[in-house]
Design a protein that fits this description.
Elements (H helix, E strand, L loop, with lengths): L6 H13 L4 H9 L3 H12 L15 H30 L2
Helix pairs in contact: 1-3, 2-3
C-alpha cells in the first residue's frame, strides 16, 4: 500500500475500514501501514459534514482559505517593505 496521505488515500482507507469492520480500527490501520489513531481521526472526519479535509503545503480546504493565505502573504510583504522605507527615511533624514 502506498503511504501518501492524500485525500484519495484517506477516503480509500475509511472505505477499507467500513468494508472490514471485523478487523477493527487497529487491524485495518496495521494492514494499511498507518497508525490506529490516524485512521480513527479519518473515520471521524468522514462522518462530519465537510468530510476529510486535506491541508498542508498548498492544500487548502476551500478557495476562501487559499485567498486568505494569499492576502496574508501580501500583507506581510507590504509591511516588510514599509519597514524598509521607514528605516531608509530615518537614515536619509539625518
Amino acid at each position: 500500500m502506498r503511504k501518501q496521505h492524500d485525500k484519495q488515500f484517506k477516503e480509500d482507507a475509511v472505505k477499507y475500514y467500513m468494508d472490514h469492520k471485523e478487523l477493527g480500527v487497529r487491524g485495518c490501520a496495521q494492514n494499511l501501514d498507518i497508525g490506529g489513531s490516524t485512521l480513527s481521526k479519518w473515520i471521524r472526519d468522514s462522518k462530519s459534514e465537510n468530510g476529510i479535509q486535506v491541508r498542508g503545503s498548498g492544500n487548502y480546504s476551500s478557495d476562501e482559505q487559499k485567498e486568505i493565505a494569499r492576502l496574508k502573504r501580501e500583507l506581510r510583504d507590504t509591511n516588510d517593505a514599509l519597514d524598509v522605507f521607514k528605516k531608509a527615511i530615518s537614515i536619509l533624514g539625518k
